[in-house]
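fyi for ur records
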Amino acid sequence: MSILDIRQWNYPTRIVFGLGAIERLPGLCGSFGMKRPLLVTDAGLADADITGRTLDLLKNEGIEVAVFSDVKGNPTASNMEAGIEAYRSGGHDSVIAFGGGSGLDAAKTIAFMSKQTLPVWHFDDAGPGWKDANADDLPPVIAIPTTAGTGSEVGRASVISNEETREKKIIFHPGMMPAVALCDPELTRGLPAHLTAATGFDALVHCFEAFCAPGYHPFADGIALEGMRLAGEHLPRAVADGNDMEARAQMMAVAAMGATAFQKGLGGVHALSHAIGALYDTHHGLTNAVVMPYVVQANRDAIEERMNLVSRMLDLEGSGFDAVFHWLLELRSEVGIPHKATELGVDAAQAQELGARAVKDPTAAGNPIQFAPAQYAAILEKACSGTL
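which gave:
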């Protein structure tokens, strides 16, 4: 592909960012004509203090809001269908996506699918099905992240699990982009250290894989590089002290940056992570963090030259791939990421099946090397044994 070939680049939605940003929510609802929003979140946040405070903000301004929280950590099609029923039966006119990646992904899909007649799998990002969508009069969505990881608040897609096939599917449509992302680091203050580490590594992986993905996208590359630098500096601080609001804010920025950058592409880390998550229902960010170094090592021949720039950006003592790889392993250890996939419950005996699933995942197309199923299986076996 020549640098002169035609491309299309898209950048994210409006972002309202900073401590206390949540106070802007009622006004934003008014600006989008949202009178009866459905707040969609995951089951773990339904009774949380931050959820209650957010609901009070809305109710005190006369906004009739209801809550739907039947959402798993890896949201499913049945979660989506139940949410659509709640949306329609409640006479809602809009959606507030509230939570981590699961709540945000479910909320965006509920809003989008509430206006569709085709099945959700028709909009799998692996094909052109998004062109068949009804894009008229889609409900406005305000996305409010409570973790700093997926960056779904600035994304045009959601990951939904197919319970029948035990696969994760990426559902895509440009209209799934939230109208505004409301990013208040204060909402992440109570996030436990292990979840701060797992979600933060998810954001880092987004930046790293986007930078390594083939293709010409200097906007994404620049954002990905800065995202990696910020994550390296601030993730350990956020894990060590959950009240470090500067670190929390920087990681919330990294999450949005990673999701912006990965429109260039992701890669083998996500391909394996999606396969593992679909079979074992593991935490997505943690799974990414565990398998990342094994995929990076397998990609070495294709990304080694790019690591020279990464090592300079991170201001490492050494240079090139070895310096970056050492930094990655040290960061992973510092924030408490498990070294082996078996610590997630993954069985190496299923390596062949997981390899076959990984190669079919849409994110595999962005990997610098197009691995065969057997190669993904070999990577997974190394992840299970801890062999680098």
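The longest helix spans residues 218-240. thats all i got for now
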